[in-house]
Amino acid sequence: MSYRYVLLLGIFLTYFLVSPSFGQARTDAFLTELLKKNDNPLFQQVLRQPDTYRLQIIYTQINRDKTNKPSFTNYYVNVDSTAYFNPASTVKLPLALLSLEKLNKLGVAGVDKFTTMQVDSSDKSQTKSWRDNTAETGYPSIAQFIRKAFLVSDNDAYNRMYEFVGQQTINRSLHAKGYLDTRITHRFIRLTPDENRRTNPVRFLDKQGNLLYNQPATYNDDPFDFSRTAKLGKGYLTGKDSLVSEPFDFTGRNKLPLESLHQILRSVMFPESVPATQRFSLMKDDYAFLYQYLSQLPGETNYPKYDGTQYYDTYVKFFFRDSLHHQLPPGVRIFNKVGWAYGFATDASYVVDFTNKIEFMLSATIYVNRDGILNDNKYEYDSVAQPFFYQLGQTIYQYELGRKRAHVPDLSRFRVRYETRKNDQRPTIKNVDN
Hints:
- The chain is of the alpha+beta class.
- It has a single domain (24-414), classed as DD-peptidase/beta-lactamase superfamily (Beta-lactamase, 3-Layer(aba) Sandwich), CATH 3.40.710.
- The protein is built from eleven helices and 15 strands.
- It has helices at 3-18, 29-36, 41-48, 92-106, 142-151, 155-165, 167-176, 193-197, 258-269, 284-295, 381-402; strands at residues 56-64, 70-77, 116-119, 198-199, 202-205, 211-215, 218-219, 231-232, 235-237, 243-244, 248-249, 332-341, 344-353, 358-367, 373-374.
- Strands 2-1-14-13-12 form a five-stranded antiparallel β-sheet, sandwiched between helices. Strands 3-5-6 form a three-stranded antiparallel β-sheet, covered by helices on one side.
- Helix 4 (92-106) packs antiparallel against helix 5 and helix 5 (142-151) packs across helix 6 (155-165).
- It is globular and about 60 Å long.
- The two termini are 40 Å apart.
């Protein structure tokens, strides 16, 4: 059975399953009432206008039984997988998982996430990556790409994982895991759709520079389903800052519905809680590595050595970040991935408080573009999105602190031994492209 047939069948079944509620957002009274208890004016303003802000929220309560087995209860505000939002850097999470999965499936002796991976080019639109001065070894690797993608949301790291996995494998793998309404179509650089279908040759080398594995350039000839258009705004600026007075077309851009993102994160943190078909093929040490860098802070990390002032503790921890709070509460760790672009801001988080023995999942996306112009870099991230995320996170966190549980969770599985920043003379890294 061809992939095109399977894809079209999946699209048909997905449409058939969602068509009775097409365009109807899911909202739960419980979560709505809980959020009303926060009387912050800006927070309530956004909640009263969910369509204007293209707001979606998923809150998952986690309860343990006497054997510590978790159960999950989801609550929603305005969640609709057919309502497009730009996922921005949140797609770096599935790319990291697919990169590890591909390494495991290759099964090449000596090739793992720490092995030197060099990227070549096969046409003029592609760029090489042979060295990485942010890495302790001085060379790129999947492990270093994942660190950079999670710690400060580095874009080049995502591009290189995209080139390793390949556009075809990315989308086939996500669809096979049941995420039929997702698509990953492009790198985070200006390329044509056809150029994004082409991915670079890649090679893995041992410590002596000997070739371990060579992957040729690839081309994805699978079709994408662009039948559902997604156009937003009243105008946009071109690369030459010319104003085009028509909506910006996201139809061919990356798509990752909030519920899919939330479920992908759950599949990493609680793999046994999702069907086997939805799990990524990861090893025990892969999970340990992911848990560390999903939750480790930039200032704790030695390679890369990020500037702690610019990339403070809560830089990519939206639910615990505002203009005054740049540090997490004692005992709190957040395993998450954020993204922001085109006025959209998104966070998918698993929050653990080891001191107070609580845990929950929270994901949300918001659109803040008052003037309706895309690509003008005039978005209300600081004045609206971040304050809203902080108020949302604190509302759920305070509720969880007071919520009674039948069984206190054993959270030791998620305890990580984090790095301690070395006092060396290397300059810190600033102004990452993210």
